Fold this protein.
Amino acid sequence: MSAMILFWSITIAQVVLGAAMLVTLYRLIAGPRAQDRVLSLDAMYVVAMLLLVTFGMRVGTVIYFEVALLIGLLGFVGTVALAKFLMRGEVIE
């Protein structure tokens, strides 16, 4: 019984995260300002990271958690670099 609840919970979570990915993709394409696009890109990497975590839970392997950790790390660095570029116009001083 609990395996069935876990299966359906992960399935529902993946469907909702897929819908969130589509919404952030729309904001990335139709964002009126560059700040909106950066925020959408930030949300998109978080959603992608969570999708990998839920997929790793479904499959039962650890490799997806490590890939999600790498996506989180690189996404944070990319967001900081884009924010610095939007504020100052250059990344490296």
